Amino acid sequence: MAVRRVELDGDYTGWWCEMRADVSARILIDLESGKADRAMSAFGRLVLAHNFRGLDGEATADVLDAPIGALMQAVQRWSEAQTLDPK
Q1: CA distances for 38 relative to 15, 21, 53, angstroms
Q2: In the prediction, which pLDDT does 85 show?
Q3: Which of 64, 12, 66, 61 shows the shortest CA–CA distance to 36?
Q4: What region does 10 belong to: left with phi over 0, alpha with psi -120 to 50, or beta?
């Protein structure tokens, strides 16, 4: 399985997550659904490992407990690096 490491900056400098480089059609549909709950759930399924912290500053097991700003930066960085090959 291909993995992409995403590193954050700004308020989240030093934070990183390892995400699946490949996505299923179902995950892509959920990411692009326009519904926050579906998109965030799909994002959570892409993250394999991370060092994100919760709003209390403590390490969090579930990436979805991290600040939304960190999640948005991570998904943006991941999506910028993604290329879908129609072959």
Answers
A1: 24, 19, 22
A2: 52
A3: 64
A4: left
Task: Indicate if the pLDDT at residue 5 is higher than 90.
Answer: yes
pLDDT confidence bin for 60, thresholds 50/70/90: very high
- DSSP structure string for 9-48: -GGGTT-EEEEESS--HHHHHHHTSS-HHHHHHHHHHHEE
The predicted-structure confidence for 6-56, as pLDDT tens digits, reads as follows: 999 999 999 999 999 888 999 999 989 999 999 999 999 999 999 999 999
68, containing H or E segment: helix 68-81
Q: In what order do the strands lie in the sheet with 3-7?
A: 3-7, 16-20, 47-50
